[in-house]
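If your schedule permits, I should be very grateful for your opinion on a structural question. The matter concerns a single protein, recorded as an amino acid sequence and a row of backbone structure tokens. Could you please explain, in whatever detail you think fit, how the structure tokens follow from the sequence? I set the record out below, with my sincere thanks for your time.

——
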Amino acid sequence: MSTTEPATSAEREDRVLERIDKFRQRRPRLLDEVVTLAHGAGGKSSAALVDAVFVEAFRNEELEQLGDAAALTMPSGERLAFSTDSYVVQPLRFPGGSIGHLAVHGTVNDLAVSGARPRWLSAAFVIEEGFPIAELREIVADMSEAAVLSGVQIVTGDTKVVGKGAADGVYISTAGVGVIPEGRRLSADLVRAGDKVLLSGTIGEHGMAVMLARGDLAIEADIASDTAPVNSLVETLLDAAPSTRWMRDATRGGVGTVCNELAHACQLAVIVDEQSLPIEPQVLGACDMLGIDPLYVANEGKFVAIVAADEADAAVAAMRAHPRGADATVVGEILAEPPGIVALRTSFGGSRIVDMLVGDPLPRIC
């Protein structure tokens, strides 16, 4: 007869949690033979493509940080942030903005949440033959307006024209350079258990505004994109909470994916309170009708920040006094256990794991 005693309920639960943890810590593997829309959604498929193709080919210390911008140190000792992005949104114009606004705001925000003060941008255009000049002028005017509002200059660029049918109107790529103030550092390795999770405002507006603007859905709602520069709001936060650990703008993949990237990088638990999430009723209603979790919907003028617990109240108060931070709030906290996990405390008193985005429910929203 076996002398092994049967496992207790607690032991069985520990083994299950251990298997789940090991599974979640595995890096996504690229198994696809062709590129799909999911590879551009900012979730698991994107991570697998970036890791297996681009990081593998270009591997270096700066790239492997996989931040919104690379932090570079000049021979003089001055630190710069450098970022690039491309914009393929359809339709080109939507309530609250256009591809031109996104092209500036997106790169400015990537620099800002990396701790830099954005200064200069480049802009490259791929234009389809037959695209109306008048419409191109409007897009460029939007970019000029956005640059002035953001306090940056567009100082260089490029233009390419492709045959009719080879593009979808116009695609824009921007790159940006910002200056990182002396002594400022934001990194996932600074995050500690007990820190607070802040959101700079309501979530989900951009993704829902673009989806509804396409006219493919029988849904009418007064939703406008939140596209806006966040660099001034970031400076306000850092003045009020100088020990801020980490920031990321929640674009593709939304807040849920950003929190998963943080949890994986710092190997701590990110716990979000569902009742604290600032979501406009019309956005929540549209998400419910489409069966989409607002945590995964893209934003273009909001960011997630991790701040020290003793600075959280001052941070929220300062942000709410800013024109773009009226709805800033603490939405969660960092815990030591379970490491690498994002969990949502539901309004019903339970909890559920928030995994990284799988697939692409909202293609081409930026």
Summary: The longest strand covers residues 117-128. The chain has two domains: 67-180, 188-353.
